[in-house]
Amino acid sequence: MSTDPPAPTHRIAVVESDPELRAGSEAWERLAAELGRAQPDLLILNELPFGPWLAARERFDGDAWEASIADHEAAIAALPQLGPPAVIGTRPAVLEGRRCNQAFVWTREAGLSYPHTKQHIPDSPGYRETTWTAPGPQRFGTVDLGSLRAGILICTDIMFTEHARAYGRAGVHLIAVPRATPPGAAAIFDAALRMTAIVSGCYVATSNRGGRDSAGERFGGRGGVYDPLGDPVTQTSSRQRLRLHEIDTGYVAWKQTVYPCNVE
Fold first, then answer.
1. Would you say residue 2 has pLDDT above 60?
2. CA-CA distance, 154 to 152, in Å (whole number)?
3. Is-contact 104 91, C-beta < 8 A?
């Protein structure tokens, strides 16, 4: 009988958030109350979670860009109000002279870090992201949250599985995927999220907006967690906008030694 201690587990929360979430709003207060009851170790937010989804607009608007930066700065400063000791999301930022979609990690102990910027930028109706942002500096950094090592891919980044595979080789346990996607893309993203887990051997946790925003843009919700075999283990809905899953880092360590993770 093994006398090794069990591998640590971590409670991860994913959400189907209000389409225009802002600090101090009714939706913010509801989320804080739900998180207070759930007590997760880590919250995954959706892509550019605060205020309107800019890429629904066909043309760039400098005032709207600055307002989005302000919405995100205010909400990130208020993250301690939500309760979890660690939060992952993304924000608009100007980096090296380019407007970018930058991932952030906030922890109660260490504050903010920025391990990744979105690299693969789509351009389609409702998602004119190339109008608003460009690929940022190429960073696929990892962050250690206690015994949990996390990496981040932002929405369309998961369509390029070489990034997920590299995270698995770097000993990552969890890939966080903040998204903003419409209902019609649900099947495509489900397949991509499964493959992200399969090729990396990691858990994959994703959050998305839900419902319709003030401009009439619809979002698909379906935040969820996928296990290292690529199976969905929990999923949000319009009735259950926050879901939890406890991930086992020992299971990840084993899965990363077998097929297909062990194929050179």
1. no
2. 7
3. yes
**Range 115-130 average pLDDT:** 97
End-to-end Cα separation, the chain, in angstroms: 33
Amino acid at 72: H
Residue-level length of the chain: 264
Alpha-carbon gap, residue 163 to 201, rounded angstroms: 12
Percent of the chain with pLDDT over 90: 95
The phi and psi torsions of 193 (rounded to 5 degrees) equal: -65, -40
Q: Which amino acid is at 107?
A: T
Work out the mean pLDDT of the chain and round it to a whole number. 96
pLDDT for 240: 95
Tracing tokens 């979002």 back to the chain, one arrives at 219
Pairwise CA distance, residues 36 & 34, whole Å: 5
Q: Is 118 helix (H, G, I), strand (E, B) or coil?
A: coil
Question: What does pTM read for this prediction?
Answer: 0.96
- Tracing tokens 């991860």 back to the chain, one arrives at 12
C-alpha distances (whole Å) from 130 to each of 152, 205, 229 are 20, 25, 33
CA dist 192 and 9 (Å) reads 25
The helix-helix angle for 186-200 and 161-169 (nearest 10°) equals 30
